[in-house]
Amino acid sequence: MLGALLPSSVVVQETRALPQALDLYPEELEVVAGAVDKRRQEFAAVRQCARRALAQLGHPPAPLLPGERGAPQWPAGIVGSMTHCAGFAAAALTRATDLASLGIDAEPHEALPDGVLEAIALPQERAMVSRLSGERPSACWDRLLFCAKEAVYKAWFPLTGKWLGFEDALIDVRPLSPVPVTATASLRGTFSARLLVPGPVVGGDRIGEFAGHWRVSDGLLAAAIAVPHARRSGRAGIPAE
Fold this sequence. Notes:
This protein is an alpha+beta fold. It has two domains: 3-103, CATH 3.90.470.20; 106-239, no CATH class. The protein has helices at residues 26-31, 37-56, 116-120, 123-135, 141-160, and strands at 11-15, 78-85, 88-95, 101-108, 169-175, 187-195, 201-202, 205-217, 220-227, 237-239. Strands 4, 5, 6, 7, 8, 9 and 10 form a seven-stranded antiparallel β-sheet that branches. The radius of gyration is 17 Å and the shape is globular. The model is unreliable at 233-241 (pLDDT under 50). Residues 28-93 form the 4'-phosphopantetheinyl transferase N-terminal domain. GO terms for molecular function: holo-[acyl-carrier-protein] synthase activity; magnesium ion binding. Keywords: Magnesium, Metal-binding, Transferase.
């Protein structure tokens, strides 16, 4: 689902099965000690994905604890991102020498609850969702907007250590696939996120915009951003003018 949206240097591990046994370290169990069973299972599933990805990168298994604002604390030399929603969990990791940051998100392919779009979207974004919904009503564009904003925040936070509100980035979604979403066809495209607050400095450039990829497939939406160290075109951070 997410592997096709990221550079080949990124290791992606995914699962659609919640673990029956909580294969967690004692420190991790403490984090979810008071959580409901479903939350504990999702917490375990996404960490199992992350540990498999770490193994592919040559790192031994270790506790993966949430840090500031819940961001995962990766081993030294690793950057990554995790996501989970109903029936799906994924982790994307790479070496810190390859990328500056990663942000991934997955959501169920269904419309947002009433009132949520108005809470998260700028006026231009609401107009975009309305236009895309008229052109391709088979896709839940409001949920895709939310998914892209979540991926933006996950790519932003490791670079800044600061909060980024929904209103602090303007998302522009561009479909690439000419076909509607069906049981056998995947809709995909790109998106940009223009930062409306001062962006992070990466590779000597201040980032004014993130660029990402997205897809809709098998009942899920996914969005991903890979931020390189140096200025380059493609799926990366775009420096401000």
